[in-house]
Amino acid sequence: MLSPCDSTCDEPDPKVLIALLALIGCSVYAQNAQILPAGNQGTQGNMGNQGNMGNQGNMGNQGMIGNRCFGRNEERKQCGTACEPSCNNRNPICTKQCVNNVCQCRSGYVRHSITRQCVQPSQCNNNNNTSTSQSPQRCRANETFRTCGTACEPTCQNPNPQACTMQCIPNVCQCNQGFVRGPSGCIRRQNC
C-alpha cells in the first residue's frame, strides 16, 4: 500500500493538490506538490461561518457564528493548526500551516473523536472513543506495518528524500531499513 506521495515506476513524479487534501484535515506538502494560488486554499480548508472541519475533516458541532465560537471550551484562533489534538491523537505531527479564523479547543483540551466536543484529556475514555485504526495488515517481503508511516518513503527514483513533511500516513506497510520502494515491492537500493 503506497502513501499519497510515494514515487513509483508508473508515477515517478506524483502531483498533490494541496487544496483537495485540505478537505481531509491536514494538508500534504509533497516535494513535488502543486501549489495553488493563496485564495484557493483558504476557502477549501475553512468552512467559515458554517463551522470548521476539525480533526480528520469531520464536521462536528464546533463552529462559529460571526466571530464567536459556540462550542464549549473552544476559542477562535486567527491562525489555528490544521491538525487539532484529539482523544485519539493528542500530539499530532503536522505541517506548519495556518488555518485562518477557526474555532479550536482551548489550551489543555482536546477534540473528542466521537462527540467532537472539546474535553479534558481525562475525559477521553477508551470505551466511548475507540480508535478507527485497522488491525495490523500482512505486509509483503521486506516491509513492516506502521501505524504512523512516512509520506516520503525512499524509492528507486529518490532513495534519500531530503525535504519531507512530518505527516503521518496511518496503517501502512513500508520498506524496512536498507530497502527502497521498487516496481514490485521493497528491494535493496543496488537492485534498482
TrEMBL record:
<keyword id="KW-0646">Protease inhibitor</keyword>
<dbReference type="InterPro" id="IPR036084">
    <property type="entry name" value="Ser_inhib-like_sf"/>
</dbReference>
<dbReference type="InterPro" id="IPR051368">
    <property type="entry name" value="SerProtInhib-TIL_Domain"/>
</dbReference>
<feature type="domain" description="TIL">
    <location>
        <begin position="139"/>
        <end position="192"/>
    </location>
</feature>
<keyword id="KW-1015">Disulfide bond</keyword>
<keyword id="KW-0722">Serine protease inhibitor</keyword>
<protein>
    <recommendedName>
        <fullName>TIL domain-containing protein</fullName>
    </recommendedName>
</protein>
<feature type="domain" description="TIL">
    <location>
        <begin position="71"/>
        <end position="124"/>
    </location>
</feature>
<dbReference type="InterPro" id="IPR002919">
    <property type="entry name" value="TIL_dom"/>
</dbReference>
<dbReference type="Pfam" id="PF01826">
    <property type="entry name" value="TIL"/>
</dbReference>
<dbReference type="GO" id="GO:0004867">
    <property type="term" value="F:serine-type endopeptidase inhibitor activity"/>
</dbReference>
